[in-house]
Amino acid sequence: MIEEEKKKLLNLRPSYELASISEHKVDKYSLIQVDRNKYSVPEYMVGRKVLVRKYAREVKIYVNEKLLAIHKRKDGPNEYSIDITHYLDSLARKPGAIRNSLALKSHPDLKAIFDKYFTSNPKKFISLIEDNKDKDMDQLLGLLKSYANSKDEIDVIDIVKVDNDIEIKARKIVASYDSLCIGGK
């Protein structure tokens, strides 16, 4: 009897996605703009069109039905979501550019590791990210920290730089206090 009932059952409905779908052109900085916010895509996509599916919590970017990138959706206006792995080719050609790149600055933990351990060797930093670009950000941070901690040498330049930054800040605070006291007589 079950076989007769199977014949009379309706076909399954297709899966349903609750997303806003739109098409966007990748600008010269390898970014697309969705709702006044910018999201990165791999740099080889510059000038091409991509399909964007905007969900409540994330943005998925496709090209020819192939998933290209996933970003957490930004809420405020004029915010950036940048994946550093999208810019590895350019950074490998110009490793000195990583120091001031928005791709690095958009990940404060990653920037802190770079500033502490890799300022004198940005090529090694880029190659470590390239070799492990399939890992998520937490795994990548752990890997970079373990690599930096396993180095035999201590980077004296970075320690001196931190002391100098503290000294400069302290002098500014003391100078502002002096001007306040002198001006307040």
Task: Provide the structure class.
Answer: alpha+beta
**Separate helix tally:** 7
Mean pLDDT: 84
Describe the biggest sheet? 4 strands, antiparallel
Biggest β-sheet: strands ordered side by side in the sheet? 1-4-5-6
**Beta strands, count:** 7
Question: How much strand content do the residues show?
Answer: 15-25%
Q: Gyration radius, to the nearest Å?
A: 24 Å
Q: Given the C-alpha coordinates, what overall shape results?
A: elongated
Cα(first) to Cα(last) distance is 101 Å
Unreliable parts: 152-163
Helix proportion range: 40-55%
Return the string of H and E elements: HEEEEEEEHHHHHH
Descriptive account of the structure:
Helices cover 43% and strands 19% of the residues. With 185 residues, it is α+β, with helices and mostly antiparallel strands. The strands form two sheets. Strands 1-4-5-6 form a four-stranded antiparallel β-sheet, with no helix packed on it. A three-stranded mixed β-sheet has the order 2-3-7, with no helix packed on it. Helix 4 runs parallel beside helix 6. The N and C termini lie far apart (101 Å). Residues 152-163 have low confidence and may be disordered.
